Amino acid sequence: MRDHVLAIEYLHQATASSCSNDAIQAKTLLGFCYEFGLGLPKDFKAAEQHYLAVTQSVLIDKNETTCDAMRGLALIRLAFLRKYGRPGVRINRVEADYWENQVQRSGRSAIAWLRRTATEYQCGASQYCLGVCYHDGLVVQKDEYEAFKWYKRSAEGGNSHGQSVLGYCYGEGFGVPKDELMAMTWYRRAANQGETVAMYNVGYCYEDGIGVPKDVTEAVKWYRLAAQQGNAFAQNSLGYCYEDGIGVGQDRTLAAVWYARSACQGYPWAECNLGYCYQNGIGLARDPTTGAYWYRRAAEQGHARAQHNLGFCYQNGIGVDKDPLKAVAWYKKAAEQGNVFAYHSLGYCYQNGVGVPVSSQDAVYWYLLSAEQNHAPAQLSLGFCYRNGFGVEKNEAETVRWFEKSAEQGNPLAQNSLGFCYEEGLGLTRDPKRAVYWYLKSAKQGNPWAQCNLGFCFANGIGVAVDPAKAVYWYRKAALQNHARAQAKLGLHLQAGVGIERDAEAAVSYFLMAAKQGQVMAQYHLATCYEHGIGTDKNLQQALIWYERAALAGCPTAHEQLRRLLVRYCLENRISAADRMHSMEQYLADWILGYAAPAA
Known about the structure:
Elements: H1 4-15, H2 20-36, H3 44-55, H4 65-84, H5 93-106, H6 112-120, H7 124-136, H8 144-156, H9 160-172, H10 180-191, H11 196-208, H12 216-228, H13 232-244, H14 252-263, H15 268-280, H16 288-299, H17 304-316, H18 324-336, H19 340-352, H20 360-372, H21 376-388, H22 396-408, H23 412-424, H24 432-444, H25 448-460, H26 468-479, H27 484-496, H28 504-516, H29 520-532, H30 540-552, H31 556-572, H32 577-593
């Protein structure tokens, strides 16, 4: 007859034994009992502490096989807890790798006790643990069918851990044909016993409609149940539900709270998400330095998205000192794990010489890897490579193909570029209506280039009926985003009173904003305003400055106006004929060389 209470009492006494080997066995078994609730309440933190104590103990007789097996068991379970975490136990994938390496050195003796108790005593916890060894390839060859066999025995014996992971096997088709209904059945059985991982998985099934009709409200209910009991995976999921308003009212402050709880337990996805919140001020005060800190925490655990994001921080000096070499190093770590964002970022680095020498072939290589995995920004970048002949032969048809793939995924830059192709007949038959279609899609997403292009279409009847008011509407939207060409176009409409009430002073203000950004048309019209006093006081000096800048940028009309105005300037300042000729030549030389222009 089993007496768990008496067994636990003896084990506690043995931990204080003067015999180190006896203490090692007792501490390991106590840790196992705490982890699986055998004879005492489950306490993952206490289990972890006992397993750690075993790793710090010294064997008196290193040939003592029983003690060696106990140490191996402690290492196996410690590696598991570090890898996957449990309420109160912090995930640390780096430490998990270390303990797994220690297990592999122990050899098969590490699972001897598990195998014996799983077979002779039909211990459900041991059967589950033995399944994990076959699942992860710890001191035995990875074997999903053998793992499934032990998980099934554990589950059918009523062990909640076994039931939960058996649900995973059915859900993923691991060691058994995929059966989503069976997955949900086993998850529910485990969840009903209070297994938080199973609760999380029930929530996941409801969120994605796996084995049950999709129900995001029900998903949140299960995530919350598990999260409140300290499950890090569920805490992270509850965080993104609050962030995106999935099954619950959007609340970014609560999203950050749940991300932080999960991150403090070491869950890499939550660490990455919390880093993103700090970087972008989502649900808490913006703090790029703290954002980079959390990215690093996740990146050092091998989290690919965090590795990419940390690289981005180093590339742009966000929360860390700018360091292109470190940026590329982190991008490469993420790329080694197949991260499509990292592929694209490496392409950018090779295209622009960020942390690596410029290499058009390498840039195209990385862009293509990312684009083929349907990453919209990379498809856009690859399209531009084909358009400009960068690393590949120019090919307008390929340009359009990649722009289209990106645009269909909703990328606003690609939508604008595809619209331009339709407007100009680049790589396809010219179709102004399709141009407007794509410009409008991009413009509605706030892309100022598309907004300006759409304004131009309405102003000139390209693919739509002429409508000056709509032209002004879109020019203004782009102008508010400091788009120079749109500011210049809006200035013209204000000056002429087309599509909007005439306002010469406002026109000058928009010309000036655009001119300061180097927009040639705006520089020319601003000069005209200063010359003739349109919307501003006459100022020939300012007129000369802006005509000169437009002329230097290649505007022939501005060059002629500059010559004419210089003659007028000399006349109005009563310079003699002889001096006038000399002065005009000198003025031309000085102005065209840029001497009169203020420092940029």
